[in-house]
Amino acid sequence: MKKRMTLALVFMLLVVCLAGSVPAAASEAEQEGGYKIGLCLSEMTNALFADIQKILDEKAKSEGNELIVRDAHSDANNLIQAIEDFISAGCDMIIIQNFAGDAATNVLQQARDAGICICSWDYALEEAHFSIINDETELGKTIGRAAGEWITENLDGKAEVAICNYPALSFLVVREEGIVEGLKEAAPEAEIVNRLSAGYANEGFTAGENFLQKNPDVQVVVGINDGGIMGVYEAFKAAGKSKDDGIALFGCDASEDALNAIQEDGMYVGTVTTKAKTKIVEMYEAGLEAVESGTLPEENQIIYFDKIVITKDNIDEA
């Protein structure tokens, strides 16, 4: 009798366990659905790129999709490996920044041949279906003019200016040339006294220290992005500098850190928003719509960045 009761109890427990496992299996199946999107940009530690990763990850999860992220660390081999990983993972769409040029052509063609939607950040790639690009000269001129106009309004048009550039990337060289052109248009008597490579905060901090050592009278620092200028900002603060010393810093990208600094109404006077966070979502949505329709565009669809100067007076427009 006890044996029959024991067997019955075991059977009942088995039924309960099996019944309890059904919802879990269904949940796993749901998690396996959706699209896979690969994201690889030059340096994911860049303030703007970190914001982009967060935005796309939240959006993908909210739609039942999966964002797979790889950091290229500005190394062409890492970028190529990331694209190969995305192909192997069965990604439906990849978003990349092809700073590697022709070195990535073959693997990008493999991705295209595999039916993967290719979305390009900063470069109008022949292999891409969608690209977001800047008119780098005009973007640079917008940054430079903002700094020049400030110099004209606050320093009678004369100032020692330092530039945070990034010659490792060709498009940023063009942006720097635009900065110089825009600065000279708005403040022809301003003098550029130093230029140092600083695309990231740690580099910017070192650049800021060097500016103050070699050019102690520098009053305006202009950068190709906000990452480097944020480092300069911290270096100048550590040295006891403030807007009362006639210091003004100008960047680009409207990163969260930069906008917070601008709101403090101190040395960080302005940035230029390209509406990058809006544009990346626009490209993401266009790419997924093409994937869902099963028809990828034969020709590269170009999306252009905006160019809007942001100061404390219009920070809500960022």
Order of helices and strands: HEHEHEHEEHEHEHEHEHEHEE
Structural class: alpha/beta
Tally of domains: 2
Question: What coarse outline follows from CA principal-axis ratios?
Answer: elongated
- Write down the CATH class of the largest domain: Alpha Beta
Mean pLDDT: 90
Q: Bin the helical content.
A: 40-55%
- Output the number of helix runs: 10
Named CATH topology of the largest domain: Rossmann fold
CATH architecture of the largest domain: 3-Layer(aba) Sandwich
Describe the structure.
The protein has helices at residues 2-32, 47-62, 76-88, 105-113, 136-154, 170-186, 201-214, 226-238, 256-263, 276-293, and strands at residues 36-41, 66-71, 93-96, 117-121, 130-133, 160-165, 191-197, 220-223, 248-250, 268-273, 301-304, 308-310. α4 links the parallel β3 (93-96) and β4 (117-121). It folds into two domains: 35-133 and 276-304, Rossmann fold (3-Layer(aba) Sandwich); 136-273, Response regulator (Rossmann fold), CATH 3.40.50.2300. The chain has 318 residues and is α/β, with parallel strands linked by helices. A six-stranded parallel beta sheet has the order 2-1-3-4-5-11, with helices on both faces. The protein has a six-stranded mixed beta sheet with strand order 7-6-8-9-10-12, sandwiched between helices. 42% of the residues are buried. The model is unreliable at 1-31 (pLDDT under 50). It has ten helices and twelve strands.
Question: In summary, what is this structure?
Answer:
This protein is an alpha/beta fold and 318 residues long. It is built from 10 helices and 12 strands.
